[in-house]
Structures are given as structure tokens and as C-alpha cells.
């Protein structure tokens, strides 16, 4: 089998215990990545001091929270400049891949005989609504995959660039998949019914106040995508889907009026094409435009 080089990029922020567990799973891979860089988004919980003690890892101290998409952008740029790998393996710090994940991703992507994106969770869209394919014993082309634990060919990154740091968090992978397909690359899903990655989804639980600020970025970023990739069907799907989110918050949600307020803030900023970190996840305060 041809030898490929892989750069693993992990983004972390204030989750030292979770990051340590994540690295345990990375080290158990049957096929280890040649390179690892951890993007440290300004943590205050001892993460930076821990990384300084890990001599086998590269890390990138950002000094502030630039979000998931900003961290991936910084990590991909670092990896390209330092190693120029054949594949980029992207990972959140609260994902724990089993020992076969990297070898499986390389195997499934390399046999396609063309560059692209291979993910483990994905879906197709119909009228803007997501539909997850049933498990199957073969790789399938889809509209979208999560970039968390996805493998991206070097050629894709060279052609279309990194994930957009302006999204901060939420929907950046959807935009990246649409951009890849626009430039002629394929997005594949490997989902055979076996759980290859344990995901904690920290910060997205319904009981967490993160549902407030995440709602802002979710509503805003999907509108940003509609601005760049206009579609009547997707627009109708956006109205239907985000209307349901707002109605559900009103009827059943905790902190309902804050959730609704931040959803409408996101819609307003999305209509105006405003990107970047505009709501602080820790304080929920608006961040002025520079």
C-alpha cells in the first residue's frame, strides 16, 4: 500500500481533562498520524502548560478563543507550511476515535482514486432539510459530512483553501462541503452501522446555556451560506427549519426569550453578511464590529 502522510489537527478550549482522554484514543490508532498539531484557543485551565510538557506534539497557542472554524483554519495553515501532508485529519477535542478510524478513512478515501473528503457522519438535503442515509456496506457520495473526524485530501485544501474562520462555530463544515463540490470534488460518507467515534458533544446539550449563543451562530451561518450559494429550495428549507427552532424554544425551551432573541440576532447579522465572533460564548455579550 502506498505510504501517505497525515496531519492531525485538534482544536481545544478549556477542556484539559477531555483533551487528555482524546489524546489517549489518538495514541491507540493502529495507523498513527505522522504529524499532530493541537490548536490551543486561549484556555485558562492549564491546557497550555500540559501541552508544553508533551514533547512529541506540536501545539499552536492562539491566546484567544477564535472558535472551531478559526482553530481549524490556523491548524491547517500551520500543517501546510510545516509538513505539507497528503491528508488532513480534523478533530474536536471531545471526540474519541476507535483504533481503526484513521486506517479506515485512508483506505476508503484512497480507493476512490480521486481527491475528496471522507467523513463518518453526514447527510443529504432535500428542500434544505437534512436526511441521514441508512447504514450501508459501501461508501456513498453525499451533500455534507461533519469535518470532525473527517479526512481531507491535500488537493482539496490546495484548491479551495481552509475552513472559513469567519464562521467561528456552527455550519462551517456544511459551507466547506458545498465549496468543495462547487470546485468539482466529491464528499463521501462511510457509515456501515458500527460506531467508530464516541462523541460527547460538550456544549450542545439542551440543558446548557450554550444553546443560546450556538443558536445565534447556527441561524446566522446558515444564512451566510444561502448568500454565497443561493437556492430557492434551500431558502424555503431555512425558513421552515429555523422557524421550527424558534417555535420550539417559545413553547418548550429553557431561557426561551434569550434563545429567541439570539436566533433573531443571528438572522439579522446573516442577512447583512456579518461574519466573525460577534457573540462571546462565555458572557453572551455582543462583540462590536471592528
From TrEMBL:
Superkingdom of origin organism: Bacteria
The protein's name in its UniProt record: Glycosyltransferase
InterPro entries reported in the protein's UniProt record: Glyco_trans_2-like (IPR001173), Nucleotide-diphossugar_trans (IPR029044)
Domain Glycosyltransferase 2-like: start-end pairs: 8-114
Keyword Glycosyltransferase: yes
Statement: the UniProt record of this protein carries the keyword Transport: no
Protein keywords: Glycosyltransferase, Transferase
Family from the record: Belongs to the glycosyltransferase 2 family.
Gene3D superfamilies xrefs: Spore Coat Polysaccharide Biosynthesis Protein SpsA, Chain A
Pfam families: Glycos_transf_2
GO molecular function, one term: glycosyltransferase activity
